[in-house]
Specification:
The complex is a heterodimer. Chain A contains eight helices and no strands. Chain A is mostly helical. In chain A, helix 5 packs across helix 8. The radius of gyration of chain A is 19 Å and the shape is globular. By secondary structure, chain B is mainly α. Chain B contains four helices and no strands. Classes of the chains: A mainly alpha, B mainly alpha.
Amino acid sequence: MANTDPDTELVRLAQAGDLRAFEALVVKYQRRIARHVARYVRRASDVEDVVQETFIRAYRGLAAFRGDSAFYTWLYRIATNMALNSIKRDPAPVLLGDDAPEERSEPFHPGVSDHDDPERRMIASQIAEAVQRALDRLQPDLAAPLMLFEVEGKSYLEIARMLSIPVGTVRTRIYRAREFIAKRLEPVLGPQRGRRW
Amino acid sequence: MTIEVSKLLDGQLEAEDAKRALEETTAQPALRDRYTIYGLVGDVLRGNSTPDDGFSVRILQRMQAERVRIEPGYDPLADDIS
């Protein structure tokens, strides 16, 4: 695929009026955007507000997105502006020095008013452990493409070149790796089935 | 079909195939689940294991409630930081 933005087709469909395509983008990026916003905004409820506003503005402005950057880059810039606006309205949380966002060790949990919620903390820990356990059992030839894609941000083409395998094999291996992990993650996520999207 | 979900997530489908995969994914709860779990796996690998408590659902519900529409001429990045 010539285009380097993985969201090109979903964005095109959304711009043409297919709300489901935008929903797919929301589901895909909500956690990443929330994490980014939480670097600026401390209260979890405020983070959720900012993330919601980010996606709403992105949807309203979809016609203005021309693909000059990747969709996620555009979304990220909107989120940054929204987060800075939020800080200006409520400047209480000052994140400097030892409290600088990159130095905060606690993960952000969107959707709760208190990110110290022990139950959510426990679920997050269980999710992380389940994925790690699955990853430990995953065949290395499946794990490598997945890690290169998800963690290193390599494209399918780059992975194919690095591992000397066809792009089609990269697609298959990433899928098989995800499926292997997903099956082991499902028991942890069980009670949330049907609530995710 | 779940391999198409994986491809859809990664932008590995051309226009018509992407449209078809999106239709099938959104029409079937099991496939929607797969789409979200595959996405979660990526986020966990990047260090974010946040459980999903319907966060995205609330965003979409708000969009429907407020009847949010694409507005030609509106540029969200032109909104100065106030």
